[in-house]
Design a protein that fits this description.
With 331 residues, this protein is an alpha/beta fold. It contains eleven helices and 15 strands.
């Protein structure tokens, strides 16, 4: 004799929602859920308050296939033998979650990793409060963005690059138009627009069905009007277009993006050597901000590692460290 509302909620969770995955993320201390293929042979593991734990729950093969079908519909990605990887975002109850998926032939069936992305609407004061940034470095970054700096946010996966990028979007002048390019939607576009900000998102979906390539998206962004340009992740041919725009002054506002790297030198190596951007063009970058994740008594936290100013030298490009964790030194 269950109330009708209870039955309706259960049906919605298992037909329209993520089923037992939602139960995992109902605990606010759970940040990740791992569904390893073959899912019917492996228990779901979760990361709870920084510790990875094995649950007593398994997903059925049919359940995994149903999730895969749902993500294909919502993301527009093929997620098939011809395109066996997936990157998407979804909701688990009232929490925003990133999804990474694999399927045959690169995996023994469908498998997923889910990561909560609750920080999407964080602002700089929030990052000061939770210890990611010192007040002085947060103030410095705010001024840099407001004055139209070109900033790359670097770090490993899970270091907090996207979280800081989302927070910096709130520091752009209110009257500045922002064109935002990202593959998987993670930045707080809806929140910014609801506050009256002029934010134009451009979705890029490489490899699956109808899509716009990142390079074409960036060229489109440059034609959509003056203002700030934000690239969710700098990782391919679009880097050359971005730096060409910076060189000729086509982007007259701040230029912000994230990139994998462990500091100024590794970012320079990534951009110049791997992505083919001339070093003279890379010198148009103003700042490289590096973040890192660390364990703090069992809890996984994030912090600023360094802010480096990019400087032209006789030998090409050099870096001047102007901030480290908890300190700021300006000349």
């Amino acid at each position: 004799d269950q109330p009708v509302e209870t039955l309706v909620a259960a049906l919605e969770k298992h037909t329209l929602g993520l089923g037992i995955v939602e139960d995992c993320f109902a605990d606010p201390d759970v940040t990740d859920a791992f569904l390893t293929a073959p899912v019917d042979e492996n228990r779901i593991r979760v990361r709870h308050d920084g510790e990875t734990l094995r649950t007593n729950v398994r997903l059925t093969t049919d359940g995994a296939d149903a999730l895969a079908s749902r993500f294909r519909r919502s993301s527009g990605r093929a997620f098939s033998r011809a395109s066996p990887t997936l990157a998407a975002t979804t909701d688990a109850g009232d929490r925003r979650v990133r999804v990474a998926g694999v399927t045959t032939p690169v995996s023994d069936g469908v498998g997923f990793t889910f990561r909560a992305h609750d920080e999407s609407a964080f602002r700089l004061p929030d990052l000061v409060e939770n210890g990611t940034l010192a007040p002085s470095t947060a103030a410095f970054l705010s001024v840099a963005v407001r004055r139209g700096a070109a900033v790359l946010l670097a770090g490993a996966r899970g270091a907090g690059k996207t979280t800081l990028l989302g927070a910096l979007l709130w520091e752009l002048p209110v009257d500045v138009r922002t064109v935002l390019i990202e593959d998987t939607p993670e930045l707080p576009v809806r929140e910014l627009q609801s506050e009256g900000r002029d934010v134009q998102p451009l979705r890029v979906a490489t490899g699956d069905g109808a899509s716009i390539e990142p390079t074409d998206a960036l060229r489109t962004a440059l034609r959509l009007g003056d203002g700030a340009i934000v690239v969710g992740e700098v990782r391919g041919e679009e880097a050359r277009v971005l730096y060409e725009a910076m060189r000729v002054g086509a982007a007259d506002g701040a230029v912000l993006g994230t990139i994998h790297g462990g500091g100024g030198e590794s970012v320079r190596e990534r951009v110049v050597t791997d992505l083919g951007v001339p070093e003279t063009a890379f010198a148009d970058t103003d700042l490289v901000v590096t973040l890192e994740a660390y364990d703090d008594g069992g809890s996984r936290r994030r912090r600023l590692r360094a802010i480096e100013e990019v400087r032209r030298t006789d030998d090409g490009v050099g870096f001047e460290t102007i901030a480290t964790e908890g300190s700021l030194s300006l000349e």
